[in-house]
TetR/AcrR family transcriptional regulator (Actinomadura soli), 458 residues
Amino acid sequence: MTDAAEGAGPGARRRMPHARRREQLLQVALAEFGRRGYHLTQMEHVAAAAQVSKALLYQHFASKEELFAEVTETIVAELTGRLNAAVLAAHGSAGGIRAMIRVLFDYATEEPDAWALVVRHLDKPEVGLELRELRDRLGTAFADLLLRRRRADPRLSRAALEVNERRARLLVPLMYGSMLSMVSWWLEHPDTPRERAEQMAVEFIWLGLDRLRTGERLPRADEAPQAEG
Amino acid sequence: MTDAAEGAGPGARRRMPHARRREQLLQVALAEFGRRGYHLTQMEHVAAAAQVSKALLYQHFASKEELFAEVTETIVAELTGRLNAAVLAAHGSAGGIRAMIRVLFDYATEEPDAWALVVRHLDKPEVGLELRELRDRLGTAFADLLLRRRRADPRLSRAALEVNERRARLLVPLMYGSMLSMVSWWLEHPDTPRERAEQMAVEFIWLGLDRLRTGERLPRADEAPQAEG
DNA sequence: ATGAAGTAACTGACCCGTCAGTTACCATAA
DNA sequence: TTATGGTAACTGACGGGTCAGTTACTTCAT
């Protein structure tokens, strides 16, 4: 992006100030890690992609792990921030769902490498942990959003609220999984219009969420329910 | 399992016939790969876990890749088989959903290492592909199940059927993602009763699926729908 | 000239895969 | 039963390639 238009001259792109170089390296590293995953990415790949020697890379980052950690931290911070902002700005839970989904589609489109890192390359156990934390943090925030109005309702007893909370927490992985899965699917099927995919996800999740407010609602009986008790 | 009770004697467990040893090695390799993922698992780990030399391992499997491929192939075949059987044996789509979810919970409980391999360790790109194929195969089968009755309905035009099909395919990643995500979440929260998690997933997905038969149904308007058009 | 930006060449460790050699087991004959 | 030879299961030790991280040196801006 910024690197070809940087130094103006034809082959004269070298000798950047420290901070700018660091930024560039982070960007390049993100792309490499995103494309190949942690283990298949070598420090030399990153250096070569930045048209720089490996040693220089090590003057900016003490180790491969540190570089990777910094990259993922950036991603997680960015994505969390976007989602939080979107959810906070949205009106009610339907708007919140639509906003979250839109953020995810946007992010996956704008930053495909970062997205790949988030959803596919969990090979580094440490990162798996971090991402699960991200999911849980988002989940909690979202459950809070859903329950905000109910919490403010003075008619609801503390016990009833707790039941609601537990239900909401159970719904979180379902929503989260559907969203991620839908985005990934859509990326692999570009012929499908994004609007359709988004709308489908919103409605699917919204209907599931509906349970939270309307209470239990079993599958219709018109189709031989479950065979066993 | 069978290895401690095998040779009877205290330290006398060695020298198995070819086929049995091969089975044991596959089992051990599955556990190792499942726990550490492909790249962090070394052939020596597998050999050591089987209380055998690395060289012997290489007499059964030509390479690390081949060993891994054989392991994953086993898993995919097993899981696909179970799911297909469950869906075929179930009555209608509600039963099908419940059956699929039950299979997934069972499998994750009985074979935690295999499960980990399926949902977490996608670091080998090749395996990621295989698993996406698995998902697509299952998705197609499931969409077929859902549409079976509609296809047999002579009143539905070919065009109407096609719309249904397209909708069904869009729903597949949503269902698939929710199911996997719910199982993974439940494994991390053992205090939640499995029945609750299962039931929640069934209802969530069932409601989402409901769209397929009832047609479009937008989120309720009681909550300031979406902000923009 | 001074120091920061940058590199080529190098080191050490790790790990896949191999090979020469050893051990347990089994068949057949004395 | 016991000796003998054949074979399949098994191992220790090492070659060879790869890759994270280092060192000693050069280039450029001010």
